Amino acid sequence: MFVTLLLLSAAQSAQPNPAPASNQKPAIKMECRNITEPGSRIPERVCKSPDEWAQLAKETQDDLNSARTRRGAGAINPE
Predict the structure, then answer these.
(1) Of the candidates 35, 29, 34, 27, the residue with the CA atom closest to the CA atom of residue 52
(2) Residue 70 belongs to what domain range?
(3) In total, how many domains does the chain have?
(4) What is the C-alpha separation between 43 and 38, in angstroms, rounded?
């Protein structure tokens, strides 16, 4: 009986598991969207972080602006 009490008190006074290392990155919440590729009727589920979606939107807008500029320049100065 005494040994059981001794083991129980030792287990209660033991240090809890240490906290995870602080250098681990926090979990990033993923954002999923259904994307339909041109020529397809079936959407594909794509999951990315909010930063990745913002980067993709910026790149898409830059491509659109450069296409408009090229098309506009060609119409103004035909060669």
Answers:
(1) 29
(2) 50-79
(3) 1
(4) 10
